[in-house]
Design a protein that fits this description.
The complex is a heterodimer of chains A (about 240) and B (about 180).
Chain A: H1 9-17, H2 25-36, H3 40-48, E1 50-54, E2 57-62, H4 72-89, H5 107-116, E3 125-126, H6 127-133, H7 140-148, E4 161-162, H8 175-186, E5 191-194, E6 199-202, E7 216-218, H9 222-227, E8 231-232, H10 238-241
Parallel strand pairs in A: 3-4, 6-8
Antiparallel strand pairs in A: 1-2, 5-6, 5-7
Helix pairs in contact in A: 6-7
Chain B: H1 2-13, H2 17-39, H3 42-58, H4 69-94, H5 114-121, H6 125-137, H7 141-148, H8 152-172
Classes of the chains: A alpha/beta (about 240), B mainly alpha (about 180).
């Protein structure tokens, strides 16, 4: 309890400011309803995905069956991509570390996809923004087409690009999934610290994998984490990401 | 109340709706007060509380009784609020037209104090979250340390620094004489 003997004007102001209100009953019924709804759809999508890899990285992700990896190295790469996708769909990964191979992609499309990859996790940009970034502000439609043919969806986040009027645009796996992916990203934190090691990582870092749920603390920035005694992880380098 | 709370969580883990309603009734208002003051938006606060309660419902089986239920809920809530605050910063740096603390407020709320709200926005996030938890629920230094995974000394220094900043800000606005 707050020591009232030492309370002052600031204490009084804060106490009245933070006085709790009533719980709206609508909130309760909404929560109960949402708790009943399961999020099996996204998991189902993940299971339908096939991944094609080259020695340089993931080159294709589609719902149709794709060529099986030819070498042991390729198989390992495919497994790694699969693992990262599973974690992503479970809300346990906020970045992909598996390499992507866009070398077979035409120049214009590759530039579009490279810009799309810079859009932060959980955020959305407009088609026109990408067009400006690549120096072709009027090529909005071409940008849309280039994203629509994204060979590596999800890992190259074309789902984070929407129409200027706020409309969804299109999506390879269907529009409902585009919205669902952004919702998923909105509810997945990006920076988490471990209360026992006092290290802050990007969510999905190998160090976080064995962290107990009770030990997870989310931070808004690496500087915030530093200010309360956490240090950034040397493996996932969260400062570079945030 | 304490043991009662833990028994309640065991029932929630067995998917007992009445027990869950009881948890929501007991903590919903306080969670909403913390989230509302941290996020300065009724809609975002309700969203954060809803996600916290969902997590409570879905994760009740992983709740461990060495946690006080309130502390456990505040950990979940502040994790969600911190991520929301992070998103606002990246959004704001990308789109300079948006104000920094940007979600529009849906009208004035009872108890809202514009001067205090603006002053609080100047306080670093980690200190702000500790102030909110302390003043909504009178959490002890130990509980605050547990919620944010920091040492008690850090809690004390953050609170002191936050209050000093508040005092200076409010002084500038002529609220304190």
């Amino acid at each position: 309890m707050i020591d009232t003997r030492r309370s002052d004007r600031v204490d009084d102001l804060l106490t009245s400011y933070f006085r709790p209100g009533e719980t709206p009953s609508a909130l309760l019924s909404r929560v109960v309803r949402a708790a009943r709804a399961t999020d099996a759809e996204l998991v189902a999508l993940e299971k339908r995905l096939s991944i094609e890899v080259t020695p340089r990285g993931v080159s294709l992700i589609r719902e149709a069956p794709l060529a099986r990896p030819a070498t042991a190295a390729a198989r390992r790469l495919e497994e790694r991509a699969r693992e990262e996708l599973v974690e992503y769909f479970q809300g346990k990964r906020a970045f992909f570390s598996v390499p992507v191979d866009l070398s077979e992609t035409p120049e214009f499309q590759r530039r579009v996809l490279d810009v799309a990859r810079t859009i932060p996790f959980g955020e959305a940009r407009r088609y026109a923004w990408i067009a400006e970034q690549i120096g072709h502000p009027r090529a909005v439609r071409a940008v849309g087409t280039a994203l629509g043919r994204n060979p590596v969806p999800i890992i190259v986040p074309c789902h984070r690009v929407w129409r200027t009027d706020g409309g969804l645009g299109g999506y390879l796996f269907g529009l409902p999934y585009k919205r669902r992916l952004l919702e998923l990203e909105r509810s997945t934190p990006v920076l988490e610290g471990c209360t026992s090691t006092r290290i802050v990582c990007r969510v999905g870092c190998i160090h976080g994998r064995h962290m107990r749920p009770d030990n997870r603390v989310v931070f808004a920035s690496v500087d915030d984490a530093r200010s309360v005694g956490y240090r950034p992880c040397k493996v996932c380098k969260p400062s570079a990401a945030a | 109340m304490e043991t009662d709370d833990r028994a309640l969580m065991r029932r929630v883990a067995r998917r007992d709706d009445a027990a869950f309603a009881e948890v929501v009734g007991r903590y919903g208002g306080r969670l909403l007060a913390v989230a509302g003051r941290l996020l300065s938006s009724r809609a975002d606060a309700e969203d954060a509380v809803q996600r916290t309660l969902l997590h409570c419902f879905a994760g009740a089986a992983s709740y461990r009784p060495e946690w006080a239920v309130s502390t456990w809920l505040y950990r979940i809530l502040t994790n969600i609020c911190m991520d929301e605050l992070r998103r606002r910063v990246t959004r704001a740096t990308h789109d300079p037209e948006l104000p920094l603390e940007l979600t529009p407020r849906d009208g004035r709320e009872p108890g809202d104090d514009v001067d205090l709200r603006r002053a609080l926005e100047r306080v670093p996030r980690e200190a702000r979250v500790l102030l909110a938890l302390r003043y909504v629920n009178g959490l002890s230094y130990g509980e605050l340390a547990r919620v944010r995974g920091i040492s008690v000394n850090t809690v004390k220094s953050q609170l002191a620094r936050g209050k000093a900043l508040l005092r200076a800000e409010l002084g500038k606005r002529g609220v304190l004489r």
